[in-house]
Amino acid sequence: MDVLVNSIDVRDLLSSPDLLDSPSSPLSAPDLRLLITRLESHTLKIKSKVQSYLLSHHDDFSSLFSQSFDVVSRSEHLSGQVSELLNLISEHPIEAELSAIIKETVEKRSQVREKTELLELLGVVLELNDKLSTVKEDVRIGRIIEAAEGMKELKTALGIRNGDSAAEVVEGEPVVYGLLRNEWTQCFDEIQDLLLKFIEKAVQFEQETNIVHVKYLLTVNDIKGVELYTVFKAMDVLGVLDYGLAKVADLFTKYVTTPVIKCRSTPAFMEKIDQESGHILEAVLEMVPSADTESNGTDGETMYATIVQIIKFIYDSLCFKNGPWMRCFGRFTWPRMSELIISDFLSKVIPDDASKLAEFQKIRKLTSEFETNLKELMLIASSDIKDERLSKFADNVEVHFASRKKVEILAKARNLLLQSNFILSQEYVRPMGLNKEGIAEDFPNRIDLLFSSEKFMVSEAAIKLMELVHQTLKDVCLLPPTVGLEFYHAAKNALVLYEAVIPVKLERQLDSFNQAAVLIHNDCLYLSEESLGLAFEYRPFFPSSVKELSVFIDLAPRFQLMAEEVLQRQIQLVIYNLKEAIDAADGFQNTHQMKQFESAKFSIEQVAFIVEKVRIVWEPLLLPDIYEKGMSMVLEAVFSRIAKDILMLDDMAAEETLQLQTLIHLLFENLSSVVESLLAVGGRGKPQEAQRDTLTDFIPSLRKLRKLAELLDMPLKSITTAWESGELVECNFTLSELEDFIRSIFTDSPLRKECLLRINNSNDWEKEYTRKYQAKSTSWT
């Protein structure tokens, strides 16, 4: 088939080379005949090859023609089907039916959605309507607070905002919402009118007699027994408190405060109480005509005091000590009241001569105190300077430069605290004795407490610090108010510096038992009492503005607490050391063995040494009652621990009991000086027996340990008799302790069983004494 595919070049069929070189040369007749002959020959070859090719591929061409015929046949069949479908569509248009079905589906879904929304809306409307019905029912039965809270919830649900009309139609909103808002408005107006009627019933003014009645149990229409507090609470919840108090405030200003400012009357107060229930039924304020109007109008002291009394009556009897309610009342009364005070009093007493400005300081002081009292009673806001109208009118601008002096005072206080020495020589640490004369009177560090006749030792730093504070406060009394106020703050901050500096400076000493910690404790007590006395000593002479702000009493509890913390820390350190010493005795076991006995004896001696060291440090420095209680806590820890260890022993030999008894006697012998010091301190002016009772009250385990020493050498029957008589219970022994003690000393026998049975049968003593002892402990605490 190459012949068919490849092209034939005519020049190849020519024999003349010239013709090959020049394609445009004309052919001669021989050449043309030759060319024709050769073309025919070549054509025959081509036909022969084509024929042979077709014959060799006959099957392939037959298959190809068969497939072509099938394709044509199927194409004609498909064309017929398409023609039939087109005819069917042209006769029945299906797109119209599909469009109608889709449109109907969309409409149905829209209708379902609208009905669902309507059902939800209907549910909300029914709920709101039920809520309104509940509110109306609450109003009818007198549950006005619940009704007010319900109205507040409905207001939010209905989208009613303050200042908007409830009848206003919102575009796109269901009409029923407008109807519900209208009904809410009607209900709101009814509740508001009802509350105003209650207020009118509660607060009544008698113009003829100048008497104001405030009634606490109210009845309006068919609603009985509603409390005035409930009415105020409902008004507050409903948001109409301003509306309710406006008229009351106006009447109080007109008939109560105005006559007082014009010095025409003074108030008298009275309360009527229900004898059966004890509740206050009515509070009465009567305005009595003033007998002396001239003296009242000179300095304003009487006028201010009278107004404060009236405001306190309103605060207590009308506003029930509720700050927001009182502020609401003040917003209606204070502007008019302050204008009256300025026009009728302050403007008339302001001096017109500079030489008399000093005389006006008293009025400025009274005016400032008056506004402070009103702030405390919450008639005016303590944080809003706009309410300080009287002070602004009375005050003149004064510019002072007191900050530098304040810094100098604080720097001096800090330096003397940092440079202080809390170590006393031995001549300063002599026992104070029992009110006997001695050279201790000449020691500068031994001072008298302000509210006690006792003397005790303090550090030089505390004395110098108080000297600085006293000098600063004396200057406050002579300085102008602004400067005086800075000096007052400097004096107070100087005291606070002790609390900040000393615990840091002496941190190491506070972590161990030593003299410095005791001096810090005494300093705190001294500063606490001196702080209490500063107000009495200087405050009456302070400038008015300083007096209003000066407070010293808050320092006393801080120093008192610091003193207690330091002392308790020292006591716990001592008790910890004592417990370590007692631990060395190994629970006082096997003391019948010489090695164990010597170990226990050494432990007892160590305990006595520690306690004696505590006595040497504490007794000359601490106040007697503090020394007594502190040392009692230490001894109680020692005696209770030793008694507990001995009572926990089991199976004691006879020789062991004698050795334990010896150790207890040794302990009391070594601690005799400490016990005697406690008897001397706690039993002053008491007989000897009463002194011992006082000591055992402070140290309950003392009697127990003494009795335990006796029990170690006592027959079983005697022990049983002592329990039955209540003697052991009074010594704080418990039933279980005594039973274990008997089992550890006496072997099992019929006698031991009998005695234990008797002890169990007579344990009522323990319960009774435990009750009495707990009561006594509570009283002592």
Automatic annotation (TrEMBL):
Keywords associated with the record: Cell cycle, Cell division, Centromere, Chromosome, Cytoplasm, Kinetochore, Mitosis
rRNA-binding as UniProt keyword: no
Gene Ontology cellular-component annotations: cytoplasm; kinetochore
InterPro entries: Zw10/DSL1_C_sf, ZW10_C, ZW10_C_2, Zw10_middle, Zw10_N
Keyword Heme applies: no
Chief location category: nucleus
All residue ranges annotated as the Centromere/kinetochore protein zw10 middle domain in the record: 180-417
Domain Centromere/kinetochore protein zw10 C-terminal: 451-579
Name assigned to this protein: Centromere/kinetochore protein zw10-like protein
Organism this protein belongs to: Forsythia ovata
